[in-house]
Amino acid sequence: MQSTSIDKLRKFLKLETERGFDNRAVLGGLNKVVPAWETEARGQRVDGNLIQEVVSRLGGYHLLDGPAREETIVYLMDLFLEYQPESVEIESEVKPEAKKEQAGLSQVNNQAQRNAKNRPQEQRNDKQNQRAAQVSASLDAPLTVISGIGQGFALKLANLELNTLGDLLYNFPRRYDDYSRLKPINRLEYGEEITVIGTIQSMVKRPIKGGAMHVIEAVLTDGTGFLRLSWFNQPWIMEQLKEKSQVVVSGKIDLYLGRLYINSPEWEYLEKEQLHTNRIVPVYSLTAHITQRWLRRIMYQTVNFWAPRTVEFLPEETRRSAGVIDLPAALQQVHFPDSDKRLKEAQDRLAFDEIFLLQLGVLNQKRTWNSVSTEPISISEEWVDLFKTILPFTLTNAQAKVISEVRGDLMDGRPMNRLLQGDVGSGKTAVAAAAIAMVVSTGSQAAFMAPTSILAEQHYQSLRKLFAVENSPVSPDSIQILVGSTSEKERVDILSGLKDGSIKVLIGTHALIEEPVVFNDLRLAVVDEQHRFGVEQRSALRNKGHNPHLLVMTATPIPRSLALTVYGDLELSVMDEMPVGRLPVETHVLSPIERERAYELIRLQVKSGRQAFVIYPLIEKGEKDETKAAVDEHKKLQGEIFPAFEVGLLHGKMRPDDKEAVMARFKEGQIQVLVSTSVVEVGVDVPNATVMIIEGANRFGLAQLHQFRGRVGRGAEKSYCLLVPETENSLENERLAVMSETNDGFVLAERDLQQRGPGDFLGTRQSGFVELKMANLMDVRLIEKARNEAKKIFESDPEMALPENEALKFMFKRFWTVTKGEIS
Question: Is the dihedral of CA 523, 527, 530, 532 positive or negative?
Answer without folding.
Answer: negative
